[in-house]
């Protein structure tokens, strides 16, 4: 059995759990609850609530989706998590400009850890307060060439689209490398 | 869609930067603790502003700018009560009270003054209404935002915020090639000029800091101002070895890797 992983990161409350839940075969929130149960709390510097989803590709291949704990105090975990990943997704809550700066800082941190392909999503685009994607691109100071995708993490189709866009980038990267 | 928030989280200089870069047209309303301000823009340039219930009548602006005397102000207000700013402006110019340059200069000072006051607001809910402009009778200007942004971002003092804005000093800078932005027209400080001299994709921010003998905080502040004004952007330092992309796959064989990714794509499409 081969396994590959993708990491979903972004500030607290940006929609990481929701995103993974929308496509995972297993219950993401249950995993989270189990890890953060009373019994585990004592050593919660090492086992923090971490989202975890699974997509069985076929008999020999499984894709795991890991959500990072958003809080800065857990960022020592990021480097471990990002090791050997296929790519990563940075989620940004389009309705909360107060998190944009943190989102960019998370993005930079991850980029430094792992030079793998990534995409950024403007999540919660279904809400009235959502900022325009082009305004967000400027506010987040994203490279115009970077894939910055509108997203509604509660919608399976929207999540599929983001995952596919990341996979297309990965393929393109491979083509360029050969 | 919405461009809403609070100045606490998204500062006035960040807003001006966004409006400048996106060439926005519309009106920004900011509700501060004591006052409400309206600032209008056309294609990313400052067009008009009004602070709270400040009398926005043209005659009053000129009175405040000491272009006309108290008695002139009183007389004009009495006689030209119902007149629009445009009509009144024309009248004042024709009557040789003031010149057209005077009018534009005092309006410009007034509008920029409003923004300077906004820089001192630590919080205030804001909302931007696309394509909404002041009534037709108001005189609209076209003031470049870069200088205003630079002044505003010089006031950013918080170390933590600067660290987030510029996460690493091992990146290089380059001038943006946006048409219409000429460095000569920007009022840079001596320190800013010293840094600007070394901006080149070959120099990292750290190298510039060393050369100009600035500490982390000083260099970050200056780079931040120039970034906010849209004059420069961060780039990977030239000549630096590019780390090879590492895509985490359980095989090193490229054909096999591609097949793996294609299998994942097919599976996700089918969810
Ligand atoms: N309307 C809307 N709500 C969302 C969306 N994504 C997440 N949420 C909600 O936002 C909150 C935070 O999401 P969560 O996935 O727990 O964020 P996390 O902290 O990044 O894991 C939850 O109440 C979600 O249901 C979205 O695309 N649209
Ligand atoms: Mg979560």
Structure report:
- The complex is a heterodimer of chains A (178) and B (271).
- By secondary structure, chain A is of the alpha/beta class.
- Chain A has a single domain (2-177), classed as P-loop containing nucleotide triphosphate hydrolases (Rossmann fold, 3-Layer(aba) Sandwich).
- In chain A, 40% of the residues lie in helices and 22% in strands.
- Chain A is built from seven helices and six strands.
- A six-stranded mixed sheet of chain A has the order 2-3-1-4-5-6, with helices on both faces.
- In chain A, strand 4, helix 5 and strand 5 (118-123) form a beta-alpha-beta unit.
- The radius of gyration of chain A is 16 Å and the shape is globular.
- Chain A starts with a strand and ends with a helix.
- By secondary structure, chain B is an alpha+beta fold.
- Chain B has two domains: 3-160, no CATH class; 172-269, no CATH class.
- In chain B, a hairpin with a 4-residue loop joins strand 2 (26-31) and strand 3 (36-42).
- In chain B, 31% of the residues are buried.
- The mean pLDDT of chain B is 85.
- Chains A and B meet through strand 1, strand 2, helix 5, helix 6 and helix 7 of A and strand 1, helix 1, helix 7 and helix 11 of B.
- The complex binds guanosine-5'-diphosphate and magnesium ion (MG).
- Residues 16-17, 51, 67 of chain A line the site of magnesium ion.
Task: Looking at this protein, list some descriptive labels.
heterodimer; A: about 180 residues; alpha/beta; Rossmann fold; six-stranded mixed sheet; 7 helices; 6 strands; globular; B: about 270 residues; alpha+beta; 2 domains; five-stranded antiparallel sheet; two-stranded antiparallel ribbon; 11 helices; elongated; binds guanosine-5'-diphosphate; binds magnesium ion
């Amino acid at each position: 059995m081969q396994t590959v992983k993708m990491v979903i990161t972004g500030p607290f409350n940006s929609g990481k759990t929701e995103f993974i839940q929308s496509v995972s075969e297993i219950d993401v929130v249950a995993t989270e609850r189990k890890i953060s149960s009373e019994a585990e709390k004592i050593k919660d510097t090492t086992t923090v609530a971490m989202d975890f989803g699974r997509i069985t590709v076929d008999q020999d291949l499984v894709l795991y989706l890991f959500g990072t704990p958003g809080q800065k105090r857990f960022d020592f975990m990021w480097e471990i998590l990002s090791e050997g990943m296929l790519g990563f997704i940075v989620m940004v809550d389009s309705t909360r400009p107060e998190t944009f700066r943190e989102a960019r800082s998370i993005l930079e941190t991850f980029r430094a850890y792992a030079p793998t392909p990534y995409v950024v999503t403007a999540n919660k685009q279904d809400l009235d307060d959502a900022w325009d994607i082009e305004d967000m691109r400027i506010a987040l100071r994203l490279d115009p060439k970077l894939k910055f995708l509108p997203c509604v993490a509660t919608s399976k189709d929207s999540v599929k689209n983001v995952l596919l866009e990341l996979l297309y980038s990965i393929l393109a990267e491979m083509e360029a490398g050969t | 869609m919405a461009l809403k928030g609070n100045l606490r989280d998204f500062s006035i200089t960040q807003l001006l930067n966004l409006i400048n870069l996106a060439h926005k047209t519309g009106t920004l309303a900011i509700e501060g603790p004591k006052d409400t301000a309206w600032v209008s823009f056309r294609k990313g340039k400052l067009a008009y502003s009004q602070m709270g219930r400040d009398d926005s009548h043209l005659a009053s602006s000129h009175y405040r700018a000491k272009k006309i005397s108290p008695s002139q102000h009183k007389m004009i207000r009495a006689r030209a009560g119902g007149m629009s700013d445009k009509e009144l402006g024309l009248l004042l110019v024709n009557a040789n009270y003031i010149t057209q340059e005077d009018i534009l200069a005092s309006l410009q000072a007034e509008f920029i003054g409003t923004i300077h006051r906004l820089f001192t607001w630590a919080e205030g809910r804001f909302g931007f209404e696309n394509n909404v402009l002041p009534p037709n009778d108001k005189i609209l200007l076209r003031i470049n935002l870069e200088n205003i942004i630079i002044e505003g971002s010089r006031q950013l003092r918080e170390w933590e915020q600067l660290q987030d804005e510029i996460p690493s000093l091992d990146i290089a800078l380059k001038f943006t090639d946006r048409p219409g932005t000429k460095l000569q027209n920007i009022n840079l400080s001596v320190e800013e000029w010293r840094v600007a001299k070394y901006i080149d994709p070959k120099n990292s921010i750290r190298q510039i800091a060393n050369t100009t003998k600035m500490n982390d905080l000083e260099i970050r502040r200056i780079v931040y101002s120039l970034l906010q004004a849209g004059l420069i952007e961060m780039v990977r330092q030239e000549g630096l070895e590019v780390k090879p992309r590492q895509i985490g796959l359980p095989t090193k064989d490229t054909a096999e890797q591609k097949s793996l990714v294609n299998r994942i794509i097919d599976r996700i499409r089918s969810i």
